[in-house]
Amino acid sequence: MGPIWSSYYGNCHSLLFMVDASNPTQLSASCVQLLGLLSAEQLAEASVLILFNKIDLPCYMTIEEIKSLIRLPDLIACAKQNITTVEISAWKGTGLSEVLRWLEDTHRTNG
């Protein structure tokens, strides 16, 4: 789906990007996709929420491991966008209240 994402960038004010925290083999591909989104001129003003999902699984990577592997501090420092991160479990509902709060705050600010 990544190659057609740019078709949907118009009027985008917020971006939610989900990373599977239980799958280290896909982390580099996720990082490449994220870098592509962050460098898209049409998304320069969008607020970004990165969701680290599947923290309920016993084999998930810690947020510190993920931040280190994708060089998250460097991404945040160089990105034009405001970037927020949240650890979630979509299955158990962990962290979803933070996601809703972010959406409300972001749309209140941009709306």
UniProtKB/TrEMBL annotation:
SUPFAM superfamilies: P-loop containing nucleoside triphosphate hydrolases (SSF52540)
Keyword vocabulary terms for this entry: GTP-binding, Nucleotide-binding
Chain positions recorded as GTP binding sites: 53-56
Pfam families hit by this protein: Arf
Gene name per UniProt: ARL16
UniProt keyword annotation of Chaperone present: no
Protein name (Swiss-Prot/TrEMBL): ADP ribosylation factor like GTPase 16
PANTHER family in alphabetical order: ADP-RIBOSYLATION FACTOR-LIKE PROTEIN 16
Any GO molecular function: GTP binding
